[in-house]
Structure formats: C-alpha cells, structure tokens
Design goal:
It is built from eight helices and two strands, in the order H-H-H-E-E-H-H-H-H-H. It is mostly helical and about 160 residues long. The protein has one domain. Strand 1 and strand 2 form a beta hairpin.
C-alpha cells in the first residue's frame, strides 16, 4: 500500500506548487506503507521508551532508551526532510511538499512529535540571528544523530525532544 497514490493528494500537491516533489512524496509513501516501516511502527509502539535516571554506579544520567525501531523511524523521517526541509529549500511549494510527506508518513505517531517541533522551532530561532547561525544548519541537517552529546558536536539535532 502506498498512501501517496491518492489522486486527491497528488492533485493538491501539484495545484499548490509542489509538483516538483511528486517523486519524493511517492517514494516516502511507498516506504510508509511497506512492511519494513510498518514493522518499525509496531515495534516502537510495543516497546515504549525507558527512562534511566542513574547509571550502574549510582550517578545521575537521565537518559531515555528507545527501541531501535524508533531510531529507524526518526532516521527515515529526517532523511526525507520531514523535520525541516522547507527551511533549507526555498523553492516555491516547499512547505506543501513537506505537508504532503507528513500526510503519508504514518507508521507510528510518537516519533512525529520531535519532527514537528523541529519544523516549528526554526522560524522562532530566526528571531535571534546568532543562535540561528549556530543551530539552524544542525536542525535542517538530514543526518539523524541519536547520540547524547553536545549539540554543536552532532551531525544533526532535533528540537524539543532528542
């Protein structure tokens, strides 16, 4: 099943200036409706995140352990630009293409929260040009970096939830 094959979606995508993104949306739809992404969604839902407040020596760590499937969903969503592509691509219709991608990316809803927050933070961040210069390239990166480390040392970051 490919949710991007909806004639209504494709008509709207083209009509609203996102015709250049038809192939991208169709590719993402094929992934979203395929067995692999559906399995990732199932695993991410079944295996809820686990909060680890302390390490084995008793030191405070406050780390969250996610199922590997969650990371695959994040990697796919970020790789396809759902988190920030319109901010890095000024072509007409960039936000329309992103909206169409969001509508077809359905394997699991939980990971879409940090994806949506990352998309939303960029315009606010631009109110502070100094911070935007540092963080916008990391927020717009299509590299998912789940490691717990200093944000400016990562290949990509998300906002709101890491």
């Amino acid at each position: 099943y490919n949710p991007a094959t909806s004639p209504v979606l494709m008509e709207a995508l083209i009509r609203e200036g996102g015709g250049w993104g038809v192939d991208e949306v169709t590719e993402l739809g094929a992934l979203a409706g395929g067995a692999t992404a559906q399995r990732w969604g199932d695993l991410a839902d079944r295996n809820v995140p686990i909060l680890h407040t302390h390490d084995r020596y008793g030191y405070r760590v406050d780390e969250i352990e996610y199922d590997p499937a969650y990371h695959e969903l994040m990697r796919a969503a970020i790789g396809h630009g759902l988190h920030a592509a319109p901010w890095a691509d000024d072509r007409p219709g960039a936000h329309v293409v992103r909206a169409a991608k969001m509508s077809v990316w359905t394997p699991e809803p939980g990971h879409v929260c940090p994806i949506s927050m990352t998309y939303a933070v960029v315009p606010a961040l631009r109110n502070n040009p100094e911070l935007a210069a540092v963080y916008e390239p990391l927020l717009a990166s299509r590299q998912y970096d789940p490691e717990l480390k200093v944000p400016t040392t990562k290949s990509g970051i998300t906002a709101g939830m890491s």
